[in-house]
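Let's do one together. I've listed all components of the complex below, 226 residues spread over two lines.
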Amino acid sequence: SAVISQKPSRDICQRGTSLTIQCQVDSQVTMMFWYRQQPGQSLTLIATANQGSEATYESGFVIDKFPISRPNLTFSTLTVSNMSPEDNSIYLCSGRPPGLAGGETQYFGPGTRLLVL
Amino acid sequence: GQSLEQPSEVTAVEGAIVQINCTYQTSGFYGLSWYQQHDGGAPTFLSYNALDGLEETGRFSSFLSRSDSYGYLLLQELQMKDSASYFCAVGGGGFKTIFGAGTRLFVKA
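Okay, and this is what the predicted structure of the assembly comes out as:
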């Protein structure tokens, strides 16, 4: 199974500022994703991080607010821009091994807990 | 689109058996997966059913009925450490995964 690390693990930020979250996987995965999860809630997909090209965003999420990079197969970043208290959440990076379709095995990083004051 | 329904909470006693149900609606179904998430932790993959029937992995089993658009996760010999949230999930088109709202399992002594 893939081991996925994220940093920072948590941060407290001022509104209007931006935070970049890094995600590193220990083995090559074909797909990487970014999710948001509010306490006690389900996981909401923000976007699919595509290697070397623009990410594919889900409805309700836009590149200006959540720019994503994936320069290679094992690394991705998510930036939360112009933060507001509505961005208080846990941000999770995940990866899927090669050859598997949507709904199959996915591995998650430990998450980044963001608090915006 | 895709939608999944599962109970919000289930409570059971240590040593018992509990079943967490999941019904789904999806255009283009490949399989149903289950994830466990402890408070403050990351979701961890438990099982995946692509075909009808029961898959057993230790104390956990997962069942799928494609004709009924229904599946369940069965936890046997419940332990306190099984207290967690459990999510069912389906493919959301392409390589995406769509998660249900989650079932919070409370295991009592």
